[in-house]
Amino acid sequence: MLKSTIRDGSDAIPDPGIGAGGCQIAVTRHDRTVVLGVSGTLDMVTAPRLTESIQTALDSEPTAVIIDLTGVEFLASAGMTVLIAAHERIGGSAQLVAVADGPVTARPLRLVGLDKLLTIHPTLDEALEASAGK
Questions:
Q1: Which residue from 7, 9, 23, 32 could staple onto 46, CB 3.0 to 4.6 Å apart?
Q2: CA 83 to CA 79: how far, in whole Å?
């Protein structure tokens, strides 16, 4: 099996790709809100990709960053750690909102208490509406 690599000027990092062990992040903008749509597996291998995407989103000074986890098939603690770090990094400069619904994403976030730290909406439409109103 061939593996593709990501080249960023440092050592080549194996790209797990989408599917078993992989994740994709789609970036869309709605005015000054950045939506990061995550799909696949969010674990210790793929979490750094989300961290980089959040940092890139913050470079544009958005009023809100919405992390849509509805396409995530597996959410590991490393993925939740990225959300905590993003919350700390953003501080009061923007809103950080998660979209999560069901046993794969919303349940783990609530079990570890992230629903007390982050605003969580069950749908992207609800998150966008709430972010536009603030």
A1: 23
A2: 7
Query: The whole model's pTM is what?
Result: 0.82
CA distance 46 to 41: 7
Give the number of other Cβ atoms within 10 Å of residue 55's Cβ. Answer: 11
Over residues 101-127, the pLDDT tens digits come to: 999 999 999 999 999 999 999 999 999
In contact, 118 and 64? CB cutoff 8 Å: no
Q: Under 8 Å CB-to-CB from 29, ≥6 apart: which residues? A: 35, 60, 62
For residue 130 the two structure tokens come to 């709430």
Q: Domains of the chain, with CATH numbers?
A: 17-132 (3.30.750.24)
